[in-house]
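# nightly structure sweep
# worker-07 picked up a monomer target from the shared queue
# config: single-sequence mode, recycle default, output format = C-alpha cells
# input follows
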Amino acid sequence: MTTLLQKIFSVKNSNDKSHKIWTIIGIKINLKKRVPINVPLKKLRMVEIEIFSYCNRKCWFCPNSFIDRHSQNNIMPEELYINVLKDLASIDYAGIISYSRYNEPLSNRDIFIERVKQARKILPNAKLHTNTNGDFITRELLDEIYDAGLRSLNIQCYLREDEIFDTNNIKARIQKMSEKLNLKYTQIKSTPDYYGVAFDYKDMSLSMYARNFKITGNNRGGSLKTISKITRKSPCYIPFTDIYIDYNGSVMPCCNLRSDLASHKNFIMGNVSSESIIRIFNNNKYKNLRKKLNKNKIEIYPCNECNFAQEYKY
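# output follows
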C-alpha cells in the first residue's frame, strides 16, 4: 500500500533526457522552464494548519525541547480556521490539508474531530492528513477520525537521543501498535536509517515508521545544535507549493520555521487574521523569498544549512 507521504514526494524522470520532465502527484513539470516566482494557485500542494499549540512531548530533535508547548494550550480561533477553509474553497482547493506542526494533533480529541469535520464539509475534495506521535491513538479514536473525514495518518515512532536505531526494536513497537489497533500491516520500506509499514484499514493511508534522525534529521531552521548542519547545494521549492499556518495565524513558508522562535520571525509571510491566505501566498515577501531559494547555491540563513526535501522538484 502506498502512503500519501510517499505519493507527495514521488518524483519520476522522463526517458527523454534532453527534455527533463518530472511528475509530482500527477502534475508534469518541465524543469527547463524558469520556475515562476508568482505561483499559480493550482500549484498549491499542501496547507498545514496548527489548530492548537499543545504537544505532550519534548523530543530532542524538535525545538519543543526548549520552547514551551506543554504548560498551556493556545487554540486557533474557530472563526480564523473557518475563514482559511473558505478562502481555499474559493479556488476549489483539492490538495492536502495537514494538521501537523509543532503540536500533537490527537491530544485534543474533540477539537481535532470537529476541525476535520468542518474541513470535509467546506473542502469536499481536499485530502485530509495528519501525523501523530501515537500516544493518544486508539481503535475507537481511529474509527472516529475516519468517520470525520481523515484519510491519511502517519504514526511516527520516535527514538530517544541515546537510543540506537535498531530495526528489531522498531518492529516490536510496531507490533504493539498493531495489537492495540487490531490491524494487520505490511512492510513498505526498510533501510539502515528508515523502517516503515502500512496498516490495512479501510481506504485510509495509515502508516507507522521510524527514522534515524541522527542521520536524516534536520536542524529545524538552525534552532537545534543536536543535529549537524549541511551546505545546501540545491534549490528549495517548498515555499512554491506549501503553506504552513501556526496556531496564532502566522503564515510560514516551511515546516522547519516557526513563528514562536525569535530567529524565525523574519520569515513570517503574513497573518491570516488580517489577510486572505490566497493573497499572502503571492505577496511580495513570498516572491522575494522564492527568488533567493530558486538557486543551486542558497545564500540566506538558515536555508543554506537545510537538508529538507532536497530530492523534491517543483
